[in-house]
Amino acid sequence: MTREIDPATAIADPMQRLLAIMRRLRDPETGCPWDIEQTFATIAPYTIEEAYEVADAIERGAMQDLRGELGDLLLQVVFHAQMAEEEGHFAFPDVAHEVAQKMIDRHPHIFGDESRDKSAEQQTQDWEAVKAAERAARGANGVLDDVAVGLPALLRAMKLQKRAARVGFDWPSTDQVLAKLQEEAAELTEARNDLGPDEVEEEMGDLMFVMANLSRHFGVDPEAALRRANAKFTRRFAAIESALAAKGRTPEQSTLEEMDTLWNEAKRAEKS
């Protein structure tokens, strides 16, 4: 017996096809058991993961991968919107309408009567002023209100620091941030030597928070910098494994001293 073609898969418009497929997957009687069981909370980690996979594809310059990853991220939006519609909160068209209106409201120099003759810095200031007004309208009056708690910790640290800096709570120069970095490193050493695990964790958090602040002052995206460092570590460790494999051995069969030597060789080869 052959299964009939589901009408959802035959829709010509790509966006409408995707929405229909998601409705079909979530159908309580005939949908996919896994998709039916999901909630906003269970899907949220996948949403975050897909966003990072988009960033990874961009970092690698892999446009074919980027096309697929953007589709995966779009699916997350569709999934959340479908669940919201089922619960009577909103539907996908509401999501699209709201973000479209937001872009119109935040670009009065394009869609309104303001002049386009602005620097990128002035446009950024105007954007932040509009966002501040939107936050106030929602009742978020504190400077740090509505910086999402669920953000990755490093990204949230950057956002918190940017918000505080807007009202003048910031170090004026990188020299002071570097001095604070040394202070926090010393406190971490003290916690390691004289205190317990909780204190070590606290001081490690303080040190990382200052590192995020230093990145901001240098105009460096700490996530991008760390991704770059991760890629570098992966390349050089792969070089260690390759060099050892040529000798018929694995890292487990090597010593730290030998692997360190091979690491330095890989480092020199990259810089030559």
From TrEMBL:
Domain spans labelled NTP pyrophosphohydrolase MazG-like: 38-111
Enzyme Commission number(s) of this protein: 3.6.1.8
Example GO BP: dTTP catabolic process
MF terms in GO: ATP diphosphatase activity
Catalytically driven reaction(s): ATP + H2O = AMP + diphosphate + H(+)
Pfam families on file: MazG, PRA-PH
CDD domains per UniProt: NTP-PPase_MazG_Cterm, NTP-PPase_MazG_Nterm
EC class name: hydrolase
Xref: InterPro entries: MazG-like_dom, NTP-PPase_MazG-like_C, NTP-PPase_MazG-like_N, NTP_PyrPHydrolase_MazG, PRib-ATP_PPHydrolase-like
Region (Disordered): 248-272
Family stated for the protein in its record: Belongs to the nucleoside triphosphate pyrophosphohydrolase family.
Protein name listed in UniProt: Nucleoside triphosphate pyrophosphohydrolase
Source organism of the structure: Primorskyibacter flagellatus
Organism phylogeny: Bacteria, Pseudomonadati, Pseudomonadota, Alphaproteobacteria, Rhodobacterales
